[in-house]
Structure to design on (570 residues):
């Protein structure tokens, strides 16, 4: 194990993800502290013994003692926190995050960060449709992807430590991508699908449709139930990559519309066969 | 029971749906015959005792004896069959179907049909991702919708009989809609979702995306594995209604794109809250 258990880990933002991190890492024997907004979250986490100590204040001792700091905050809150409070970090500390967009965050943080502290970004692709430390669990990481997005400013040691953290947490696939590759992938696989689901859910308000709804429609709109604060921020933070993916989708959708209008059955069947073949790649292994 | 079991039922097209109909109706004690393309389908159905007799020919006695004829064919094959072979039907026979589009079929059939035979259209909204009588089952109707689409040419008795048939088959919801209401509903809930799934699946062929795929993307593309012959025909048969639904979707999607481009967070959050509220209506009861 590269990350030795004498390291003190601080989690900033004790919600669903931060709480799930704490739950798993505490079991390995790490000293876990937490700083978060609500006293009730701290109380719950202490009672459940998933943290050793916690505070709703900027506890200088707690921050100054942490060897590894994991930020599980909204993107803009994370950037503000570093800008205002990085002076409190321990010299030599390693900081990482859980932010779902990378290009717009990683460079901003690395460029403003003290030179004796290193930021290595990561995106744990796990979540639930509920939030809060009370819903945290050690079961959301199995089968999921953990993506580290290093830049030229990162040391090999930090990259290794961050990947090791992903393995300790129980992620099935721990890989690296550049921030740009990450954002394109996330723009397509996650953000575009959410854009489609909310559009489908809001484009026709005709009454009584639900009476006739089958599984296909339910499958396509499951994620149409969405945290508007978080996703609108993630969309804007990944604007360039997401607009590109939306345009690829619109262009292909219009192509299909054109084929239907001109009754180009051969063209539609070609597209459907392409779709069928490509979908086979995406089956769960 | 309105449909008495002394009635002889003929199923034309013994595939997944036709076979599933036969399986359930035979159990009630009806005399079931079948006409289909492949001898192997007839052999299987006889062996499994889900039909009493079957043929791959236009068996004049079999057709002439049937009180109820259920057509489970592709739309254009159904229309051709009636046009060429309706002379063989018994006087007073009731015919129905399983076709997934209505406006373009119902009036065409009713207008060409002999006056001593009645056509009452129905759409059993059930299916599987596999086909053929060998995959037929009596389990696909529970929880599903069965929609009868009467016109002014239909008698109350035929409508009642057709609805009773849906209940006997085990459908949970048996209702009526006009052919036009049906096509709008199907255009939105089923055909538009398939258009979206195949577009999403084919709009970005970048390699290795499958490595990072999560449940959201899999949910949205499950139906991207599609029978190209059947769906291209259903799309064209419902062209007007489907184009209308596609345009509603494109317009809303472009609205979202515009809000993202101008970073209109409030607008996006309003749309997401609308989506979240509306999705609650579509939860399984």
């Amino acid at each position: 194990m590269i990350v030795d258990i004498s390291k003190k880990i601080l989690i900033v933002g004790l919600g669903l993800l931060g709480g799930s991190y704490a739950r798993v890492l505490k079991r390995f024997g790490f000293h876990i502290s937490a700083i978060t907004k609500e006293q009730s979250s701290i109380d719950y986490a202490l009672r459940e013994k998933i943290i050793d100590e916690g505070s709703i204040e900027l506890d200088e001792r707690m921050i100054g003692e942490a060897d590894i700091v994991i930020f599980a905050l909204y993107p803009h809150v994370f950037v503000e926190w570093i800008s205002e409070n990085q002076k409190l970090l321990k010299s030599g500390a390693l900081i990482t995050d859980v932010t779902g967009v990378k290009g717009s965050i990683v460079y901003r943080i690395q460029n403003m960060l003290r030179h004796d502290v290193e930021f290595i970004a990561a995106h744990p692709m796990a979540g639930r449709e509920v939030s809060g430390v009370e819903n945290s669990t050690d079961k959301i990481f199995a089968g999921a992807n953990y993506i580290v997005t290093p830049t030229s400013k990162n040391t090999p040691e930090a990259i290794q430590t961050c990947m090791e953290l992903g393995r300790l947490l129980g992620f099935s696939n721990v890989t690296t991508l550049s921030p740009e590759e990450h954002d394109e992938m996330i723009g397509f696989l996650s953000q575009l699908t959410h854009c489609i689901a909310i559009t489908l859910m809001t484009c026709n308000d005709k009454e009584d449709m639900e009476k006739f709804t089958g599984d296909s429609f339910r499958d396509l709109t499951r994620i149409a139930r969405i945290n508007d604060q978080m996703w609108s921020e993630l969309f804007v933070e990944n604007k360039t990559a997401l607009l590109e993916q939306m345009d690829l989708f619109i262009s292909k959708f219009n192509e299909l519309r054109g084929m239907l209008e001109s009754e180009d059955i051969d063209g539609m069947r070609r597209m459907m066969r392409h779709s069928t073949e490509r979908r086979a790649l995406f089956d769960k292994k």
In short: Chain A touches chain B through 84 residues (CB under 8 Å). The mean pLDDT of chain A is 95.
